[in-house]
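Renal dipeptidase
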Amino acid sequence: MDNQIVLNLEQVPKELSLILELIKDQQDESHQIYHELFKDINWELFIDLSLHHRLYPILYKKAKQCNDVIPVNVTKTLYQYYQRNTFQMLHLTREMETVSQLLDENQIRVLFLKGPHLAYELYGDLSLRTSSDLDFLIPIEALETVGNLLSELGYAKDDYIQTVLNDWRWRHHHVTYIHPEKGLKLEVHWRLHPGPGIEPSFNDLWDRKSITSITSSPVYYLGKEDLFVFLVSHGSRHGWSRLRWLVDINQLLKLDVNWEIVCKLFKKGKSLSVGGQSIVLATYLINSHIHETLNPLLKGKQPMRLAQDAVFYLENMVNLHTTPVPEKTARYHSRHLFSLMSLSQKLLFILSFLYPYPEDAKTLPLPKKLHFLYFPLRPFLWGWRKTRKHAIS
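Structure:
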């Protein structure tokens, strides 16, 4: 990487700059390097940013080491959230094992994507990473069976997906189940990411799986190489709007990973520049050490451009999970998502607009046996909706 190239972080709040300095690798234990950053800090905003970026468990540990410059009440507040998260992770661990055992008993293969196992495998400590729910991947043909099994456990399906002509199979990637008594949420994936896009098959992922040692019975998750690619793709798709995802990447970079396979996976998925974006951000923001095998991800100017584009999400404390997303942010995010795509991915994405949407069925309800007519009718139905929206506004 060209060391003369730097990210422009001038508009990043100084409270977030302090957080970035605290979570960096290879710090000066005397805190002399960033001592000036502690001056004139808005500590309420510091806490808000710690919560937003899901970094309060790590920052609590750091705050205890910096008690000469961080107010006691700030450390106490971070500890309260840290303690609450520890109980939450223990709760999720128990539920993860319960779900895994249930599916195994019914001969359903399952790979956990995100959850307490990541805290243990990446950080070596259940309390140092947050998780609000459990995400797991299953073969698409097992969806109905898994839904019935979860219902028996007391979970209710959040049936928010509207679909026509089975577009849910590739436009969406997971369905949500909520347990009203336990207060837990499960995201059941049949794809790693929303489509259209190239993904490894479930069988390939299963062949490369890992097993976590956090539970007494077997719980499987993505192999380290697939996990790295998944977490990078997930983080980039959300604009790295939570720094915890980047810290996850930093932790994976320290493990024994076959980086040649990682590069091949990025190449196969036509996402080399997305991998490069994560490397640039991890290097400049938190001092990650990058293995030279990953250098092919940094070729060209696109990784740096994408990394600079992601700074927008740090400047504005963007929350893409709370609707409605502000219009300015939504427009920026749509453009950023498009910029992440390769040329062939952009073409496939544009062509996907020709496939009927559920809105077409709402605009012109037709019997299911005539749904194929939405293909030729789609341009007219889309134009009709736009005309009506313009007329109303």
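The mean pLDDT is 93.
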